[in-house]
Write a structure and sequence with these properties.
- This protein is of the alpha/beta class and 702 residues long.
- The protein has four domains: 93 residues, Phosphorylase Kinase, domain 1; 190 residues, Transferase(Phosphotransferase) domain 1 (Transferase(Phosphotransferase), domain 1), CATH 1.10.510.10; 212 residues, 3-Layer(aba) Sandwich (Rossmann fold), CATH 3.40.50.2300; 141 residues, Response regulator (Rossmann fold, 3-Layer(aba) Sandwich), CATH 3.40.50.2300.
- It is 34% helix and 18% strand.
- The chain contains 22 helices and 28 strands.
- Strands 21-20-22-23-24-27-28 form a seven-stranded mixed sheet, sandwiched between helices. A six-stranded antiparallel sheet has the order 1-2-3-4-6-5. A five-stranded parallel sheet has the order 14-13-15-17-19, sandwiched between helices.
- α4 runs antiparallel to α9, α6 packs antiparallel against α8 and α12 crosses α21.
- The two termini are 49 Å apart.
Length: 702
Amino acid sequence: MRPLTPDDPRTIGAYRTLARLGAGGMGVVYLARTAGGALAAVKVIHAEHAADPGFRARFRREAEAAARVTGPWTVPVTGADTEAREPWLATAFVPGPSLGEAVGTGGPLPVATVRALGARLAEALGAVHAAGLVHRDVKPGNVLLALDGPRLIDFGIARHEGATALTATDVVIGTPGYLAPEQAVAGPVGPGCDVFSLGCVLVYAATGRRPFGDGTPAGVLFRTVHQEPDLDGLPATLLPLITACLAKDPADRPGAGEIARSLADGPGDWTVPGLPATVAARSAAALALPDPEPPPATPDPGPRRPTRRRLLTAGAAGAVALAGGGTVAWVAATRRGGTGKAPGPLPAYRIALHADLTGTGRDTGLAHRRGALLAIDAHNSRTDKTFTLALRTEDDAGDPGRARRAADRITADPRVLAVIGPTAEAVDAGIAGRYEKARLAQIVVAAGSSGADVATTRSLCVLRPLDPVLVIGLISYLARVRPTDHVVLIEDRADAQNSWAIRDLLPKAPAYGVSYTTETVAATARTFAPAARAVVAAGAGAVVYAGSSAARGARCAKDLAAAGFTGTGTSLGPVLAPAFLRDAGAAGEGWVFAEAYTDPTALPAAEAFTAAHRERFGAPPATWAAEAYDAVGLIARAARTTSAVDAPRDGVAGRILSTGYQGITRKLSFSASTHQVLPRPGIFLHRVDGGRTRFLGLSTSV
């Protein structure tokens, strides 16, 4: 629990707010009290989300779904207003920890407790399914532990069976590691999905690990669809039932009622080590909270001037763009009080750069540093800023041990508002966990893959589409610029997980009338000639090389040329490296690549940035410098608009995820449901011309 801020409401409907329980991109959850003294958890949605009719419809559906589900193991809805300017939903307050917290700190649960947990969660799912609903996000974080048993919470993505999704089609909704294979491939959703998820939750409760492992979301999804679960260490008495729950075919899974009866027949005992003490401590802390006093009234200093709230409401009207729109200047505000004294010094904050500046990735790290420095200088040059910024740099040299120590030093600095980086090719789950624990916004600019679960972390913001998603840009190009009715995907098994993710996503892209076939090349193969001959025999007009190796991509291009292929060759950013240009030679001419970075020298919006970079560093901006510049602008915008006045660091991540920002490279905005950056504005095309890379532009406008 955290204290209320001056901008937090003191009443929500009939509820009196007491403290903050949590905050994220969509809104804030408050601990509140009714007039009769009952405690409640009240979720309030940010007004900018509620202004979207589609989002309001989803929230209305959530409230209706949650109110219809009753039973001892679900959390009852106690109030709601789905039509308010900031809609809200209240449920009974459960002072216990989540299953994820309990297992994460205390280890696996006793087998008898797991049986009781499974029986009661299955009973809760039975109530959900009886109401014609599917939860779709059963996971340890959505299971709270009370003294008498578990409580299944959060119907934020539940929907009626067979109802048309209010989200985009072919989108995976849920948490990788706990969702069913049919969800992983955006297939039909039914009660069997929740049964599969329950099986995953019980494996976690009994063993302390997920049945399909950790790692990147794409990797976890791949294993969920194609591999068997890891059930080592699962008690023998639970193995047959949980194995049935984890069947790939939903028709082979038991129903929720069958699971409840099976687990109830054996020895069950709701004993969670340490739970009574935890519940007692949290209950005492909640009950001891007094009703907070109203925010103090500000004395009238004479002539009226805009309040902070009015300034924030002014939004873009009160902001001035710097250097072609990259960093938003702070709205004008004096720091005089009502005493007529001169303004005091401005608060000084830091943005940390966690980068490889001396290792093999030093070119990327240096580009980040230069872009960030220019953005901070532009901010500090404004006369209407309300605080100053400085750059704190930590060099990890690409070494994992140094990276962990660098993260610890950054999180220990209270003046750091947010961290940009690390600048490695993949997001490290351990590093992300350190920043998550410290509630420090982590802005990743360049990484093309993630070992952390981007969709469920609250402080991790990846500003680019991950590598497999870039294929959307290629399909847009092939549909509009190089139309063809047959595309062949060359699936390079040397990169099994990413190539599978690309193959899974490719047919879902909106290129109507296009057929897709796949040619698979073994990881050990040294030639792509058989696949190339199959491409030519099929009369394909375009090829997508699905891999991440520049050398193997070049081999593919040469073998296609040797087989007589004259169509369009395409691939993704990781392949677009000097090794491809060198090894492919003439065979690489005309190949088109989708990437997440721009060429700022070709962007009118980045003209001032490019000129400033040349003047200060004597060279044009390198790859990722402009994107790092935008990252600073995004952090500054979030810090300016957060309601956490006394501790702006606490609110930066939530504001980043809940608001859009127009930078010099593109507009940055995030999905409220997945916390991931919207991909299409961030996919850019590059083409090989004359042995060099030529920037074509945004994939949707080329």
